[in-house]
Design a protein that fits this description.
With 420 residues, this protein is α+β, with helices and mostly antiparallel strands. The chain contains five helices and 20 strands. The chain has three domains: 125 residues, no CATH class; 156 residues, Jelly Rolls (Sandwich), CATH 2.60.120; 128 residues, Jelly Rolls. 13% of the residues lie in helices and 30% in strands. Strands 1, 4, 7, 8, 11 and 12 form a six-stranded mixed β-sheet that branches. A four-stranded antiparallel β-sheet has the order 3-9-5-6, with no helix packed on it. Bound molecules: heme C (HEC). Heme C (HEC) binds next to helix 4.
Length: 420
Amino acid sequence: MRLVAAALFALGAVSAASSQVPPDTATRPITFVADVAPIFHKHCISCHRAGEMAPMSLVTYAESRPWAKAIRNQVVERRMPPWFADPAIGHFANDIRLSDRDVDVIARWVGEGAPRGDGPEPTPPENNDGWRIGKPDLVLKLQQPFDVPARGIVEYQYFQIPTNLTEDRWVQAIEIRPTDRRTVHHLRVFARPPGPDVPRAAISPDRSLCPEEVCGDLEPPLAGFGPNIASIGVGTLPDVFPLGTAKRLKAGSVISLHVHYVTTGTSVTDQTEIGFVFAKSPPAIELKTISLAQEKFVIPPKTASHAVVGTVHFQVDAALWTLGPHSHLRGKSWRFDLIDPEGQQRPLLAVPQFDFNWQTHYVFDSPIPVKAGSRLQATAVFDNSPANQDNPDPDAAVRWGNQTTDEMMFASVTYSVKSP
Ligand code: HEC
């Protein structure tokens, strides 16, 4: 109990310190201990911590000091923390941008020589053995390690892991931890209800999985996969669902994983782990995730802006909770609009400069109500010109495909159906 209280106290101190400028900073030097560490602990170390996706840790002064100039550049130019939604459209619960005040404090600290300051450094928030979602109630691991070679192209891999759950559970948070994050381009987790196994060839995981009565024009659910409960791309953070909402994991479910490994020049043995935090009681609202995809497109060679549109029709009243746009190296921008049955269009999310390295899930601050008969329309724009520095081949006509050199127009959409 004593430890818990201490940890809570430390967290409280952190948020209080970073929420307003202490009145004396104009006259005294800005220091790591008093001013900067609380900002890093709140906004940076979820990624900049040993074992996480960023290249260096920013937990302590000794670790941060060598990076001071790079840190100033990154935060002043708003490249860190990474966030790509147009701030003029929508409000998001996981918006990790720094306030102007925090940017100013960091820039002044670096300008003044990045001093440490006296006294002990603030304690970082608890690490839970590296699980960002807190201590998981259930951890599932690939049953056999998978060897990712140093070079070449790896076909999609499919794995199954039995949950052995004897009753339904409600997933409050879920975290996917590959052994080496850099080898996983994306990974999708499905929960197949108990039943006979389905031959691999019958499974096409990129199809939409929305019940027909909810989303009129999508493919019906496939026998082999079951609901999508989580996915990560490059740079995606774990899903923590708001209290009172959760995803159902049926008793006896078998987790099926669909993994796109990429080679990094070094061979890696992967044994991905998936951690689940379960809700203590059944939630008021059940969340489900569907895929919005448009597979029929050809992006002409040397074209700087080619738009591809995909739509989901809602047949029932619903609410939207998150949007996760996904395209590859030619992805240039995304936007999502909700068009109600009267034709009124409401912009929900715009990502004016899509970056393949950041496959962010955008979690709405409060869920977006959807009237039956509305359309969710997504527009992805692709840049297949030589001016796109990431473009692997501007002379190619580019179609839907699994490899990073192909393209995808794909978004995960988390929704709930309002109870009547
Ligand atoms: C969502 C994860 C995430 C968060 C949050 C985050 N970073 Fe990063 N950061 C990364 C990754 C991954 C890289 C390396 C790839 C890149 O540069 O895009 C990086 C790179 C950097 C670099 C460049 C390092 C170099 O090689 O020059 C700096 C500096 C940096 N981050 C500072 C920060 C600071 C300061 C914060 C908080 C205010 C922050 N980052 C928050 C993930 C994150």
